[in-house]
Amino acid sequence: MRKIQLHRIDLNLLVVFEALMTEGSVAAAAERLGKTPSAISHALARLRQQLGDPLLVKVGGRMQPSPFALGLIEDVTPILRSIKRVLALPEPFDPATSDRVFRVACPISGRFLSEVLSRVHHAAPGVKLEWLSAPREVYEAVSEGLVDIAHLGGQTRLPEGLDQVEVPGFRWTSFVRSGHPALAHWGREAWSHYGHVQVRIANDSPSPFDKPADARMPERHVSALISEFSSLGPLLASSNLIGTFPRVLMAWEMQTYGLRPLVPPVDLPLFPARFFWSSRLVNDPASMWIRDIVLQVYRDVHDEADRMVERALSESAAR
């Protein structure tokens, strides 16, 4: 049997062959495939040459298949169907019937988590949301699809295989308890005099405090170093510590624990923020669904936090 040079066979020629076998004429095959009759005739000629068989011959106004063509179509048809099935776009994601577990890695506020959960469960009551911290291994976890979407602050360069989108960055505000002695003389001296609390997270990005834009930034004494944002509210409310954090993290803690916002007496530029996910899942319908929710909630919560803090600053200034 003559050996076929498979690498020379154009798959499009087999598509034309199937259309010709089904329609029985060059004109009908051309209309079905959206091509000109001359293009169909040219494709048939190429396939005849490559396979060494006439395949279809015009007899009485209709194309008649050769014995080889009759055997070939039996094998080609299921192959083309399989290719169509493999290359077909993914089925749409139906949140109402899904029981999928989504994993989000983000150290942001409980308000953010609460709003994401609310929107997810409203549309997808069977879906489970697992909220994770953002450890150093998060890049590998996201790349492998173990985490659907993760948050990243700062300008750290992401590894290959990850897609990202920028979201509104962090605006820094200082927070103290109501009645804090620094309220009477807030400024650079008070900034240096009272202890600060810092949250240490596993992130390679330096904070503005590590590399200050203001070379004359007064000294900041960190008296408490904690690992979670959830304890900031009660800690600040029961001490004379100063906490300088992004508004999106603290606006609701401010409201719950009666904290007072203060404009930092130092230059703290906007801190970039991003969300990222595996490049492999960029077109996955379920992944796209959870990303849309997380990103929209973040933007909404960020804007709401900004309004809350600005309003509280205005009220403080009016006192």
Condensed summary:
The chain has helices at residues 11-23, 26-33, 37-51, 67-87, 110-123, 138-143, 188-193, 232-237, 247-257, 285-318, and strands spanning 56-59, 62-65, 101-105, 128-132, 149-153, 162-170, 172-177, 196-199, 222-226, 242-246, 259-262, 271-278. It is of the alpha/beta class and 319 residues long. It folds into three domains: 6-87, Winged helix-like DNA-binding domain superfamily/Winged helix DNA-binding domain (Arc Repressor Mutant, subunit A), CATH 1.10.10.10; 98-169 and 273-305, Periplasmic binding protein-like II (D-Maltodextrin-Binding Protein, domain 2, 3-Layer(aba) Sandwich), CATH 3.40.190; 170-271, Periplasmic binding protein-like II (D-Maltodextrin-Binding Protein, domain 2, 3-Layer(aba) Sandwich), CATH 3.40.190.10.
Keywords:
319 residues, D-Maltodextrin-Binding Protein, domain 2, 10 helices, Arc Repressor Mutant, subunit A, 42% helix, rod-shaped, 3 domains
Secondary-structure map with pairings?
Layout: H1 11-23, H2 26-33, H3 37-51, E1 56-59, E2 62-65, H4 67-87, E3 101-105, H5 110-123, E4 128-132, H6 138-143, E5 149-153, E6 162-170, E7 172-177, H7 188-193, E8 196-199, E9 222-226, H8 232-237, E10 242-246, H9 247-257, E11 259-262, E12 271-278, H10 285-318
Parallel strand pairs: 3-4, 3-5, 8-9, 8-10
Antiparallel strand pairs: 1-2, 5-12, 6-12, 7-10, 7-11
